[in-house]
Design brief:
The protein is mainly alpha-helical. It is built from three helices and no strands. Helix 1 packs antiparallel against helix 2.
């Protein structure tokens, strides 16, 4: 892979990792507050972040060209490979 492609892959993975962690942390706040409307809003924001992470991981798989899927990037990497 060319250095430019490697840098783009690393950048896309960093964006995906950040969105994944934001989504996971935000969903932890759901069902802890007194306002139902705010809880639903937090859940929707969390789903938006998870959707963004999925999009970035799919794109990273295409850039890498090794046949890895979004699940491979999101859940099957060792913790030291996360870029957030």
């Amino acid at each position: 892979m060319v250095d430019k492609d490697q840098a783009l892959l690393k950048y896309v993975l960093r964006l995906g990792d950040n969105a994944l962690v934001y989504g996971q942390r935000l969903i932890e706040l759901v069902a802890h507050g007194p306002e139902l409307e705010e809880e639903l809003a937090n859940a929707n924001f969390s789903l938006d972040y998870l959707g963004q992470a999925r999009m970035f991981y799919t794109y990273a798989g295409k850039l890498e060209g090794a046949g890895r899927t979004e699940d491979d990037f999101a859940m099957l990497r060792p913790e030291h490979e996360y870029e957030n």
